[in-house]
Design brief:
- It is a single chain.
- The chain has about 300 residues and is an alpha+beta fold.
- Among the domains are: about 5-50; about 140-295, no CATH class.
- Helices cover about 30% and strands about 30% of the residues.
- The protein is built from five helices and twelve strands.
- Strands 1, 3, 4, 5, 7, 8 and 9 form a seven-stranded mixed beta sheet that branches. Strands 2, 6, 10, 11 and 12 form a five-stranded mixed beta sheet that branches.
- α1 (about 5-15) crosses α3 (about 35-50) and α2 (about 20-30) runs antiparallel to α3.
- The radius of gyration is 34 Å and the shape is flat.
- The two termini are about 55 Å apart.
């Protein structure tokens, strides 16, 4: 179930209080980045303005009082030292009495109604069968195929890509998740791992992989990104762009069949964040609205005499 905006805001505040950067939270929730950023920055500035650090002497005195209170709790009082042996003996006697009463009651319950000389059968232990956990099955497509039923393409939605003279993205693998409650995952390694996103604005695409995948309905496409770096056009600076989890995910359903070729275009975009004090920063995120699949019929095989 998707989180509402209030819960996402609470999660981001907790993450920032643990030391994470605001940009990491914005990259994790790109669909709410425009609403989250002013709230998170206002929270951070308020936290700085009202931060308080006690003096070192006050810390030392408070620590001494704390340790002294702990030592007083550890020392038993006079009456505790006097009554401790008696309490221990009383507790032991109570346990022995309860054990004896329980044993007598058990024998009376087991042997009631049994004829003289009868043998009471031993209790039957019931062995519960082990609970089997079905792990998610992973299907790795070993090799591409020029006649495959699935084509994976990359494109760029124009946002702040014009700030770069080049923006190189390296994808290590692509993962497809079937629709429904299936635990199966389809995985393949792109033939083209590294590409320049500045060459793919708007409607332009680049094919990264073509091959055969199992037929069926799919709901999610995940790409695992190992590196993103770009060259700023105005300064020539080489800038590394960090991703919070080194993977990007799009949830968009599509179907794959043997009778057609499914082409899925994964649309990426780079967005500028930050302010004048922090300097320019950029995040890479997927664009679900611009991504999706198209299908065309497979070319018919040529038969003899035709």
């Amino acid at each position: 179930m998707a989180k509402d905006f209030s819960q996402i805001l609470d999660d981001c505040i907790d993450s920032i209080n643990r030391g994470d950067a605001i940009e990491a939270c914005l990259a994790k929730h790109p669909e709410h980045a425009r609403q989250l950023e002013p709230l998170l920055r206002a929270m951070s500035q308020t936290k700085i303005a009202y931060s308080f650090s006690p003096a070192m002497d006050a810390k030392r005195i408070a620590r001494q009082r704390f340790y002294a209170a702990i030592d007083r709790q550890r020392l038993p009082s006079f009456w505790q030292r006097m009554l401790a042996p008696r309490v221990a003996l009383t507790s032991l006697a109570s346990v022995l009495i309860l054990f004896a009463v329980g044993y007598i009651t058990l024998r009376a319950t087991v042997f009631v109604g049994q004829p003289p000389g009868s043998v009471v059968p031993p209790p039957v232990s019931v062995v519960q069968p082990p609970v089997s956990v079905v792990p998610p099955s992973l299907i790795t497509i070993a090799a591409p195929s020029v006649n495959g039923n699935f084509v994976f393409l990359i494109s760029d939605e124009v946002n702040d890509i014009a700030d770069f003279s080049s923006l190189n993205v390296t994808i290590e693998k692509v993962e497809l998740l079937p629709a429904g409650n299936s635990t199966q995952r389809i995985e393949f390694t792109p033939e083209v791992k590294e590409f320049d996103l500045t060459l793919l604005p708007g409607e332009k695409t680049q094919e990264l992989w073509r091959g055969n995948i199992p037929e069926g309905e799919y709901s999610t496409v995940v790409i695992y990104v190992s590196r993103v770096y770009g060259v700023i056009k105005t300064t020539g600076e080489v800038l590394d762009i960090k991703l919070p989890s080194n993977k990007l995910q799009i949830s968009k359903g599509f179907q794959v069949s043997a009778a057609s070729i499914t082409s899925f275009t994964y649309d990426l975009t780079v967005v500028k964040t930050g302010n004048a004090n922090e300097g320019s920063r950029y995040i890479l995120k997927p664009q679900a609205g611009e991504s999706g699949a198209t299908q065309k019929p497979q070319a018919p095989s040529k038969g003899k005499g035709k």
